[in-house]
Design a protein that fits this description.
five-stranded mixed beta sheet, about 220 residues, Beta Polymerase, domain 2, alpha+beta, 2 domains
Length: about 220
């Protein structure tokens, strides 16, 4: 798959197919969502006004392709906060990836999964409830997917990409019009989260491993210059 990621000459750590195409819910009208991580040249880190938190690049190659990439430092920080929007792409189908770092990044992503990740799924669900009547059916279906994925994580199981498998596994509703059924399941998920023995946040060793990876990436970039 030959794709112009719209990030100039920056190195790609990985690019993955995301959204409905990855989750098994795509239709003929679905766009292609690409999510990933890039590596800034180490020289850029010393430039005036460089801010690692303002390194997200969003672009639309055409009306059918939506891309979002975070610089590796920001990407790792977001994973450590437990956000599903950065953890899930690590496990989604890859367009390309850097073999030097992908296995370690995947290991870190697995160990970033915590109750904070469940909270990020619940955050999406809460916003969906507030805007239920204005949201399209694909967002409601994704809400059910979030619930299934959160249950799976709380059971200590790995990320499942396919939406329909998640919904079948936990016997969730396909009724995309009934907000009351959805609210009830969200409330149940909140209670399950409270009783879960899943770690509250990534452990110190995961943070150390993440820092080691970032240092290695920066060092390798200097060596490549």
């Amino acid at each position: 798959m030959n794709v112009d990621f719209g990030i100039g000459n920056k190195k790609i750590l990985f690019a993955a197919v995301s959204g409905s195409l990855a989750n098994g819910t795509a239709t003929s009208e679905s766009d292609v969502d690409i999510r990933g991580c890039y590596i800034s040249p180490t020289d850029d880190l010393f430039a005036l006004y460089y801010n690692p938190l303002k390194t997200t690049i969003r672009s639309e190659q055409d009306d059918q392709t939506d891309m979002e990439f975070h610089e590796v430092e920001k990407y790792i920080q977001l994973m450590l906060k437990g956000g599903f929007t950065t953890i899930e792409p690590v496990f989604q189908p890859k367009i390309c990836f850097d073999v030097r770092y992908m296995a370690t990044l995947t290991f870190i992503a697995k160990n970033c999964i915590s109750k904070k990740t469940v909270s990020s799924y619940l955050g999406f669900c809460d916003n969906l409830i507030k805007e239920w009547d204005r949201r399209p059916e694909k967002h409601r279906l994704f809400g059910w997917r979030c619930i299934g994925q959160a249950y799976r994580i709380l059971e200590g199981k790995p990320i499942e990409i396919n939406t329909h498998e998640l919904i079948r596994e936990y016997g969730l509703s396909y009724n995309l019009d009934n907000i009351y059924t959805f609210k009830s399941e969200v409330n149940n998920l909140v209670e399950v989260r409270k009783e879960s023995t899943l770690r509250d946040e990534p452990c110190t060793s995961t943070v150390v491993r993440a820092n080691q990876l970032l240092r290695r990436i920066r060092h390798d970039d200097l060596e490549d210059m």
